[in-house]
Amino acid sequence: MKIMKFGGTSVGKPERMHQVSELITKEKEEKIVVLSALSGTTNALVEIGNSIATGEREQAKQQIEKLEKHYQSFIKELVKKEEFYNKAKAIVAEHFEFLNIILKISFSEALNKDILAQGELLSTKLFSVYLDEKGIDHMLLPALEFMSIDAHDEPQIGSIKVKLTQLLKQHKDKSLFITQGYICRNARGEVDNLKRGGSDYTASLIAAAINASVCEIWTDIDGMHNNDPRVVKKTVPIEQLSFEEAAELAYFGAKILHPASIWPAQFYKVPVKLLNTMQPEAKGTLITGQAGSVGVKAVAAKDGIIDINIRSSRMLLAYGFLRKIFEVFEKYRTSIDMITTSEVAVSVTIDSDTNLKSILKELEPFGTVEVEKNYTIISVVGNEIAQTEDVLSKLFTALTPVPVRMVSYGGSKHNISLLIHSSHKTKTLQLLNRGLFGLE
Ligand code: ADP
Ligand code: ASP
Ligand code: MG
């Protein structure tokens, strides 16, 4: 069985859904198709949630109306026969009625998650109606019945496996399943999600749970590129990546993959393919245990980084000092991305300010603490790059004009990370494109 995940742009227009139906019916192999919300929908739902949270209900009402109109015209082009159009119309009406009811209820975080879930529920249900019209036999699998996270927001792979296997067993006669990406249930049984871009994570978790033959991530670009195509003009696709390389790129900002989406496939040894819905014949990127080649493959940038510097003369020769500092971050479940130390100071970076205040308060007794926001981690990724000749010299020659705040080299064999102020991000990615890849 294989997994095929289609992102927002891949289902964002009626004609794209037509294309998806062709791609999923091309070969006979049984498959689970994971769909994101139509492009723009989750952003719109986030805005609706924000308006309700801040009490701007009239604004929320208008935002809901605008989104509903979009869906009403979408279904007019999606299906042709009246019977199926009426079904699609009823689905749209049901979900927008739900949003309008939410408008009248007092806001809560749980309610917000319900709002965010509407996008994937709509896209899969509408796609199912479209498949029905085309006479393509399939089964809609409700993700909320098997996809779950624990009290620390970690996916419960064991339980996902059990529930999903049971569901599939009940429908042995089917060979095509459609399900929602992104959405899940949390430890309290409420509707929740796997964070923005989470449909990739859904796909990889399902692939791991059922030991799929392959996990295909279909998107709007022909695979992982050597640099961020949103920032630099000329980028090229990478044919092959190891799980480690792909995981580093995903974690350090390559938007094509959700930051955590590689580990399930890696752990259960399911190959991942990144493919282009708009250009299905393109090779894309194959991600397996093999890197294919040695040397620099790509650079990525992760924004929103906070730099925390702790200076203390008491650190001089003090063993156990780092442990005490790390314990503070552990207590607040905040992971550290980069770290540098000297005899009297330690700098760490984190990517979330959720518990920043509490963390800083607990760090105070250790020395002078300074915090700077708006940093970006630039990661240079490639198999064994730490041992590759010339990488460091090329890197630093290219970056002569950029003030580098921190460097992490040697922690991973496949990654060299640099911390820069976010205002230098575009320039840094452009300079590296020329310096490391010879591209403008
Ligand atoms: P989907 O909606 O299919 O999940 P995303 O927008 O989440 O698609 O991811 C695809 C986008 O990721 C591309 O359109 C591209 O702009 C962006 N991107 C950022 N870095 C990279 C990279 N290194 N390689 C390919 N795409 C990248
Ligand atoms: N629709 C969700 C988002 O926009 C999940 C996804 O697209 O992967 O974040
Ligand atoms: Mg995505």
Can you tell me about this structure?
The protein is 40% helix and 22% strand. With 440 residues, it is α/β, with parallel strands linked by helices. The protein has two domains: 2-220, Carbamate kinase; 297-437, VC0802-like (2-Layer Sandwich), CATH 3.30.2130. The strands form three sheets. The protein has an eight-stranded mixed β-sheet with strand order 3-4-2-1-7-9-10-8, sandwiched between helices. A six-stranded antiparallel β-sheet has the order 12-13-11-14-16-15. A hairpin with a 3-residue loop joins β12 (336-341) and β13. The longest helix has 26 residues, at 109-134. It is globular. The protein starts with a strand and ends with a helix.
Q: In a few lines, what is going on in this structure?
A:
The protein has 440 residues and is α/β, with parallel strands linked by helices.
Which features would summarize this protein structure in a list?
440 residues; binds adenosine-5'-diphosphate; single chain; alpha/beta; Carbamate kinase; VC0802-like; 6-stranded antiparallel beta sheet; 2 domains; binds aspartic acid; 22% strand; binds magnesium ion
